[in-house]
Every structure is written in C-alpha cells, then in structure tokens.
Amino acid sequence: MKEDLFNDRIDQFIDAITKVARGDFSVQIELSEEMDHLDALAIGINMMVDDLRIGKLVELENEKIKELNIQLQIAKEKAETSDRLKSAFLSNMSHEIRTPMNGILGFTELLKEPLLPDQVQQDYISIIQKSGERMLNILNDIISISKVESGEMKIKISETNINDQIHFIYEFFKLEVEQKGISLSFRNGLPQEQAILKTDREKVYQILTNLVKNAIKFTSSGSIEFGYNLRNINDIQELEFYVRDSGIGILPEHINIIFERFRQGSELLTRNYEGAGLGLSITKAFVEMLGGKIWVESHWGKGSTFYFTLPVSSADELNVEKKAGQTSFREDFQVKKFNILIAEDDSTSEKLLKITLEKISNKVLSVGTGAEAVEVFKNNPDIDVILMDIKMPGMDGYEATRQIRQFNKDVIIIAQTAFGLEGDNEKALIAGCNDYISKPINRKLLTTILQKHFDQEKVQKLQV
Amino acid sequence: MVIKNISESEIWVEANKTYLLPGNIFYVISEGKQTEEMAIAHRLVCHQMSKLVTGKVNYLIDLNNCGKNEPGARLIWSQISDEENTNKVALFGMHPVARVLASFVMGITNRNNQRFFKTKEEAVNWLVS
User: How far does A14 lie from chain B, in Å, by closest CA?
Assistant: First the structure.
C-alpha cells in the first residue's frame, strides 16, 4: 500500500517532467501534507517550471521587440529615403520650373530689341512657346500626382475608340520624332469597328502620351513603335499595349525603381534629361486605377519596351463604333463670326483672349466681374457666346451663369477653368454652362468647342 | 492585499507575520503560497520597521509552513537580502520542502549573507554571533 502510494507519486513526477519536456510549462505537481522529500522535490520542480514559463514569455517578448526594432529600422530608412528624395525633388522642381521660366523671360526681353529680323523674332517666339509648354507640362504633372496622392483622381468611363487614340498620338508626335531623325510607327491590334473600349479615355490618352514622350526623350536614333494586341488569358480578355524604342535602355538595377516618384532610373540621369521624374509614376497610377498593370523590358544601350494592360470585361464590350460623342478638330471646319462677351478679371488673360478671338469675332465685349457680365448680357442680347471666367471678384462665374440662365437658356456659355481640380468642370455644367475649357486657352481647342455647339450651316472658313 | 498593523513591532501581510525582535531582527513567519505582491508588501513593511532601529538589520525567516514562491516573490526577497542595510539572513525549517525553498531564494542573491538552518535556535545563534 505504502509502495503503491509512493509509486503513484513518482508517476506524477514522471508525468509532469514529460509534459515539461514537450513544452508544457503550465504543469504543477500536487503536494501532500507530509512535507517530505518528495514534496520538497515537487515544490522544487514546480518552481523550476514557473521559471521556465517566465523565461519562455521573456523570449517571446524579446522576439517581438526584435521584430519591432527591425520594422522601426525599416521605417527610419524609408523616412530618410523619402526625405532625401523630397529634397532631390524640390531641387529638381526648382530647376524644371526655373529653366523654362528663364527661356520665357530671357527671350521676351530679347524680343524688345528694335528692328529684329523676322526670322529671329519667330525663333525667339518659338522658344518662348516651347518653354511655356514645358512649364505647363511640369505643373500638370505636379497637379496629377497630387490628385493621385490625395485620392481626388477619379475615373470617368466612356466608350473610346482605341485606334483613333493611337492614330491621334501618332499624328501628334510624328513631326517631332521625324525632326530627331527617328522613325515612328504604330500597330492596331483590332479592326476599327471592334476597337471600342469602355474606359477612361483621358487617362488612356495620358498613359500612351507619357510613354511615347518618354520614348522620344530617351531615343536619339532608330525607331519607336507603339500599339496594342488583344490577349485572352484564362477566358479574361485584355488589351496589351506596348511602346518600343531603340533608345538608351534601362539598367537592370533601376528597372524596379523607375515607376517610383521622382526617379528616372538614377538621380544622375535626372540631371541629364529634362523632366521631374513624375511621368512614369503618374502613368503607373493611372494604369492601376483602370485595373491594368504596367511593366518594362529593357536592355541597357539597346532600348526598352513598356507594356501595360487594360481589362476588357467581355467580348461584347468590343462593339461596333457608335457615332455620337466624339469631337475632333477638323482643319476644314467653318466657323461664323461671333458676338462674344468675355468675363475675365485678369487684364493679361483678357487681352490674350481678345487677340485670340479676333479672327472669329464680329464684336467682343469684356467685363471684369460676374455682376457686370449679367448686366452687359442683358443689354446686349445679340451676344452668341460668353467666355466666363470662374474666379472673379464679387459674383463668381458660377453665380453669373445661374443668373443669366434665369432669363436666357440659349446663349452658349463656356467656362474658363484654371484650377484643374476634380469637380470644377462638373460644377460649371451644373451651374448652366454648356462647356468648359482649361486655362491656358488653346485656340484650336476653343474653336473645336465652338464648332461643337454651333450648327455647321452657320459657319464660314476660318483662317488659322 | 491585506496588511494589518498589529503594533509598531508586529505587522501581518496576508497570513504572513513579521515581528521586530531585539538585536535588530526582523522575524518573518511565512504561511502558504508566496506571491510577488506579498513580497513587495513585505519589503515596504520592513522598510517601515527599520526606521525604529539604528544600524543594519537581520532577517530570521521561518519556512516551516511556507508554500511555493512565485518567481517574482523570490526576486524581491533576494533583493531584500542584497540591500545595503541588510546584515544577515537566516532561513530555517524542519522539513525538506523548507530547504528547497531556501535554496531557490539563496541561489539568486549576489551577496554571501544567507544561511539555512533546521531549527530556529541555530538560526538565531548565527544571526547574533
């Protein structure tokens, strides 16, 4: 009996030790009332198991702390990199803005010289114009990336003919590319009537433009080809676009970073090629917003091919082309001479508009406030078109439009929007405007908009 | 945590009793399981009692009815032993459990001022020697 009791107690010890060996540190051996040697052994084992349990907890905590330290280190490095890139960005931005500004101010000053030969004048003017366009591109890129970062960038889905977009881009860049001695070609992956895609037309245009522009920038000889193919992968259709160039290529170690903000593959490259390093990051953001992906294959010194995909939800999406909706500038369009009211508080913008509209206007009136616009229009009901600036002192363009619409629903009101912010254009339409145009105003685009809103029978040929 | 101030020289912490004896001896009778919280309370009690005496103090700790010591409790008692104001620490108990308990506490102190005895008399003799 005594032996049985003893053996039972020993079994408890064995059981406990076995559990501890398996990592169970919750085990405790029961004590008897005897307080004998076995109890002494039991209490000792119990306290040792407590120590092992605490040790294990400490070990786990240390692991967590180690992991946290690694994450903190990574975050610190990221913050330092971000800080460095931001400094590089600011420095680059300063350069990118000051450089064209230098061109504009410098050559404007030179234009003041009396008796400049015509050709020299034209050269200076061309430089000023190019510098202005370069600055505008930089500003547009900065606004785009800010909108993407802040989540303000929205998608507007409509039907677009991809072949038309490809062709437009080809025509747009053809001259510039040929002047560099490079050949430009394109390839449509689908017949015209099947090339309709439901997507954000503007973003697709920007994506392709960015990629082709990049190809031109980094190619000094050879060829550039762009286009698309229809792919069917696991019953999912997508259009795979490509832009292939025979330019400088990209180093393998830079391929993963070129889509990052402010990078052009290396900060050294940034200094050799103009640009803020935002184009590809904007392009990537747009592609991903549209549900696609973007990647590049490249060989240093030989050229690169940029690919991006756009999803097609079903074969039915690729429909016969619909005729309505698309407006493009036609060289042979005819515009009548309009009576125009300009509502613009900035004198320089007003002067520019007047000169721009000279060839297509009978009469041009101008006012500096929204209230004046309403009053002048009331007294001049023969006004055909109102170019309404939005931001004016006192009554703004939206309110002026609303008031005019209370007594006239027919006059064409075109809002001049300067902010480029999401919603500005929609606000203008809701207020009662027929259309909108962003500053700086492009004459071709303005006449295209006018063409859209006026009956073709009323127009006559425009000397551009 | 129940602390009872019976008198200036007798304070109870839960079931444990602490007495201030002549010769600057803090006599602690441990009863049952010793938690970290109890050990912390004991430390406060001993600091309070040490204001009643001049010079270093000695500890006489009865482990005859003591139960398992939590790891935190053992650490606190070892810290008490290591304090500059502590002279000697004598632990005693008749049975093997007491010896094991004492070993666990003595094993983590930095000073060599602790001994274990079987009887109270042996322990007191050493403290006053």
Answer: 19
